[in-house]
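Notes, Module 5: Reading structure tokens.

Key idea: the token line is not a picture. It is a compressed description, and you learn to read it the same way you learned to read a sequence, by spotting repeated patterns. We will look at two proteins. The first is printed below with its tokens.
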Amino acid sequence: MIHVNEPDIWVHALLMLSVLVLMPLGGEVCGSKTSWMEEISAYLLGLSLLVSPVDPRVLIADDLSIRRILPMGFLLSLPWLWVRIRAAVPVVVDWLRQGVTDRDRLCLESARVFPAIGAAWLVAYRANWTPWGFDPLIVLLTAAHFHHAGFTLPLMAGLNSKASPGCWTRFSCVAILLGVPLVGVGITCTHFGVMKFVEPFGVAVLVLGALGVAVSQVWRGLERQRTILTRIGFLISGASLFAAMVFALGFGLRYVIPNFALTMPQMWMIHGTLNAFGFGLCGILAWRAVVKRSGHP
């Protein structure tokens, strides 16, 4: 059965945009091709989000034994978790063995690691499992966070830093690498009622880094050597990210300035759409055009 009335249907669509479109295109920009295993697991994941989960409390009698039915959506999402882990583990092992001093490389490689965290939360969501008592919607939004902020932000921060090394782009890389996990930790702290300052602090760090990327994207759009379509893509990307981060900052400071914050549904509709289509899709297409024309970012 397809989800037709659930309020999280748009979050599902944004997730699949990242999985089926942004991640393959982003891989092309970095010189890596999507494997057949990744393609199959991505389509299975899409199918898993369309399949209505079987209630895990339903039991079925089989002769004298009783076994629990596993939700179909959970089973279909497992291959995606597997390919994301396979992509992330070699990167982490390399970090542990050699260390990383190159911020550009660290950012670009983090775009391969963070989605594995998102995949784990997505599998939990499809299994009807709510870790630490989180609301199922929060579990889904956490998965979306690590598939979008955890992918497009470090990817484009690394590309900008590689193309234009400097204090500004280096700061953006560091802030994003700290901010993406800090937001996740902060939401967990807020959930348990401890160290509630972590969430607004993490959001502030991430927003500062993202604003740096937004400025860099706009700057790319002002470079006259680019084609007009590429420049438009960069300008839309930077402007969308700037607007999305203003909304994110307001939501992160909702306990301090409640009147400035959007509601949760407004956040995933407005903030999520700006990040996914405006910043992510337009930005990656612009970078892809740059790489195709010059052979490097």
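Here is the second protein, with the sequence above and the tokens below, as before.
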Amino acid sequence: MLTALLPMGAMILLIAGIVYKKIKRDERRRMESELLAQQLHMQFSEKDDQGFLAQLQEFTLFKNVFGSRRRRSRIRNVLYGKVDDTTVALFDYSYVISTGKSSRRITQTVFFADDKNWYLPNFQLRPESWWGKVKQALGLQGAHEIPDNPEFSEKFDISSEFQSLLPKAFGPEVQRFLMEKPPVHLEGSNYYLLAYKPRKRLSSVEAQAFFQHCCEMVRLLKSDNRLELLNLADVQTPEALDLNAPTPIKKETGE
């Protein structure tokens, strides 16, 4: 009987070890995210207290795709605040993807911007893939282009219900910026913008660089729409923001 119990005991120890490692890994991630929030002068919440998951259900990132089913979606380790008049957030989005025979949890870092003073046409932008080119060649997918910039159109697949509005949203400066920086996936709709690297959870160092990259991109998008530029030096938490206060003067850094 003792011999029969040994495999069961070993299995219990194995499961307990896996659970313990996951708890420690999640705790380490939480601490790293909280420290990053402090460095960026943003607020931190371990859970989705802002209700981002409910807000963003219409975006492709949060939908079921290609016959697979996304279950147990959640947002954690949320950094949030304001850059000038734009609400920004950085968080871990995870979900379990299931095809019926197997399932696995995917976690990735997502940047979110919300600004009621701008307008973005519904669009998706991602680096052009070989499969996208094959579908275009077979006539299964239309070619979406930005006029007067074939190099940008060759590098990125950009689609929208309102193709005629894309050149305004993606002006020359935005196009140049996206071509010079590491490519990301973008989704926009009205006053919402998402940016992410598919299925990639960024380290703290990577996340900080990604956040700054996304803020600069938002600044350029707003600039192309002739709206007030973002002040990347002044990231403020909601409690610290006074909407009636005069716009602060940026200090000279000597750089």
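Summary for the second protein:
- Strands lie at 43-47, 69-83, 86-98, 103-114, 120-127, 156-160, 185-190, 192-196, 235-236.
- The longest strand covers residues 69-83.
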